[in-house]
């Protein structure tokens, strides 16, 4: 058997183009070839299960090996293999079915992912790092002959008789000069770890030594010996592929440790599992937040059938949940298309709102089941919830029932509970309920104290998100305004204790006021002599709430 021919493609030589445009991301050749090998193994298993393959299945295995001297990387599998005809069909033609379209569009492509998926260049990504690619393969089909395919990166290929004696395929890459960095054990290990850590078929890369028990010595102490075993780089059944009922808390925590070795335990997690109208599994963790939010973003890993794709999950995960950690696996997310397409994709939209709903449901469940523990976690969860409430109407609809407000005494209230608590006493002249809050309990302590004396409650609103949350509450709550505890409104509220003991006469009060007003003559501030009770501050300087917010906004530049 011997055949020479041309890869059917309508352009002279596409490989220089591939190399040039895919260069930045060339490590994904390994992801593509290893996932093809995994697919081949999965396919033979399926054929066996369907009774269409009766032969020996063997232990499914994909092996990656490196020959530094020969400058080759080989990806071998014991999958279903290919006949010479299948090579012609799947490798020579199909891979380039979109080639003319490719040539037309390659100029706009921003990264390798985009091209690889769109034009079915999976296998051909090998040419990003190799100047000669060889396939040695033996099909599972009865009477199949081993076949060999060689291509040097031009459009010419050669098919000859192959050398494989067992079912499966070897892809042998003769690494080119520019890609010699890949001829390193550590480099390959790193890439395999990145993309293949959770592939469903064992991936072997070399061997490693371990110790195993080896009887007892003369004194009866257990002995061990060193043995060489296959170095399997992956876990084939990561927890997101299992049913939640099979898993214990420890399993979730262990997996978290595996993903983020140096992190504190997460607060809780959500197991995602849906197969209609799209397919998606995963586990999302609520981390304990650190101050440096930026460092904690983009920690969710996106997989497609257990192949790692990216940790850029923007658009798939709602913005307010970008601080979550964990994994999402979906074959239905279009991985290889541009950002704008992703945003418009209806599956992505559905997935986004599914995740929002799941998170809201989980929080509601935690709240209902164990309010005390929910309250303990609120400092961490509160940030997500408030952000979600502000940014996602659908989330707000659900979260308004479990969002908490915390007062200076450390008590927590739902929005409804809080309304009930303050509505009678904290009402202004217009009949609006006034929620008082502090942005800095230490600085505003004297105001908090005097509000407390009057029987008012003060909320703590001291996180960066609270500025926006306050605005949101005012928009959503009927006839409710929020005023900082040191604003000029406090004294306009109805007081619980009407019998105030005046220590100054009205005349004295007026005099004092004038003195202070002169001393503090800044626009926007109001001076009030409120020495009505013997144990209160004699004078307060307040500012109108609206004026203050404007000033604060100007200081922050209006951003978030
Ligand atoms: P895709 O994986 O998206 O189908 P590829 O370009 O990666 O596209 O591969 C093209 C085809 O070549 C595969 O669909 C498969 O039929 C065949 N193929 C590639 N690698 C192997 C392999 N290791 N074993 C068997 N068939 C393979
Ligand atoms: Mg492929």
Automatic annotation (TrEMBL):
CDD domains, sorted: HATPase_Hsp90-like (cd16927)
InterPro entries recorded: HATPase_C_sf, HSP90_C, Hsp90_fam, Hsp90_N, Ribosomal_Su5_D2-typ_SF
Record-linked Pfam families: HATPase_c_3, HSP90
Binding residues for ATP: 32, 36, 77, 82, 97-98, 169, 339
GO molecular function: ATP binding; ATP hydrolysis activity; ATP-dependent protein folding chaperone; unfolded protein binding
Lipoprotein recorded as keyword: no
Key words of the record: ATP-binding, Chaperone, Cytoplasm, Nucleotide-binding, Stress response
Domain of life: Bacteria
Protein family according to the UniProt entry: Belongs to the heat shock protein 90 family.
Name the record gives this protein: Chaperone protein HtpG
Lineage: Bacteria, Pseudomonadati, Bacteroidota, Sphingobacteriia, Sphingobacteriales
């Amino acid at each position: 058997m011997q055949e020479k021919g041309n890869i059917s493609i309508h352009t002279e030589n596409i490989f220089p183009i591939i190399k040039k445009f895919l260069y930045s991301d060339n490590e994904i050749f390994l992801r593509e070839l290893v996932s093809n090998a995994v697919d081949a193994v999965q396919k033979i298993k399926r054929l066996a299960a369907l009774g269409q393959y009766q032969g020996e299945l063997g232990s499914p295995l994909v092996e990656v090996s490196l020959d530094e001297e020969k400058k080759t990387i080989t990806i071998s599998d014991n999958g279903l293999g290919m006949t010479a005809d299948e090579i012609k069909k799947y490798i020579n033609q199909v891979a380039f079915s979109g080639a003319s379209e490719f040539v037309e569009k390659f100029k706009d492509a921003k990264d390798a992912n985009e091209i690889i998926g769109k034009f079915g260049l999976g296998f051909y990504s090998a040419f990003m790092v190799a100047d000669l690619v060889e396939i040695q393969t033996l099909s599972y089909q009865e009477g199949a002959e081993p076949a060999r395919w060689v291509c040097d990166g031009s459009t010419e290929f050669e098919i000859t008789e192959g050398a494989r004696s067992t079912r499966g395929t070897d892809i042998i890459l003769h690494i080119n000069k520019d890609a010699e960095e890949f001829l390193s054990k550590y480099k390959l290990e790193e890439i395999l770890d990145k993309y293949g850590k959770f592939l469903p078929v064992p991936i072997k890369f070399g061997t490693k030594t371990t110790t195993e028990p080896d009887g007892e010595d003369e004194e009866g102490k257990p002995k061990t010996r060193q043995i060489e075993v296959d170095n399997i780089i992956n876990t084939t059944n990561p927890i997101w592929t299992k049913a939640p009922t099979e898993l214990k808390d420890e399993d979730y925590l262990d997996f978290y440790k595996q993903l983020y070795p140096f992190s504190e335990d997460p607060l809780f997690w959500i197991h995602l599992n849906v197969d209609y109208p799209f397919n998606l599994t995963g586990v999302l963790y609520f981390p304990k937040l650190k101050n440096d939010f930026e460092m904690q973003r983009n920690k969710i890993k996106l997989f497609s059938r257990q192949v790692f794709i990216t940790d850029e999950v923007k658009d798939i995960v709602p913005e307010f949940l970008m601080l979550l950690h964990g994994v999402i696996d979906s074959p239905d997310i279009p991985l290889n298309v541009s950002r704008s397409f992703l945003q418009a994709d209806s599956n992505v939209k559905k997935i986004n709102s599914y995740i929002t709903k799941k998170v809201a449901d989980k929080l509601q469940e935690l709240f209902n089941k164990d309010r005390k523990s929910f309250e303990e976690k609120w400092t961490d969860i509160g940030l997500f919830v408030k952000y979600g409430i502000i940014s996602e109407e659908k989330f707000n609809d659900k979260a308004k029932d479990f969002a908490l407000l915390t007062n200076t005494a450390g008590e927590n209230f739902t929005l409804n509970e809080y309304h009930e608590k303050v509505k009678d006493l904290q009402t202004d002249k217009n009949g609006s309920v006034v929620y008082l809050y502090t942005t800095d309990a230490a600085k505003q302590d004297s105001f908090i104290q005097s509000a407390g004396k009057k029987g008012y409650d003060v909320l703590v609103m001291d996180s960066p998100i609270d500025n926006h949350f306050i605005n949101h509450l005012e928009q959503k709550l009927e006839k409710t305004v929020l005023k900082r505890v040191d604003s000029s409104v406090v004294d306009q509220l109805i007081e619980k204790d009407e019998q105030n003991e005046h220590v100054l006469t009205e005349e004295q009060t007026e005099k004092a006021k004038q003195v202070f007003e002169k001393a503090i003559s800044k626009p926007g501030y109001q001076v009030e002599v409120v020495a009505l009770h013997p144990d209160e501050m004699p004078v307060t300087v307040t500012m109108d709430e609206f004026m203050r917010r404007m000033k604060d906004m100007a200081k922050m530049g209006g951003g978030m």
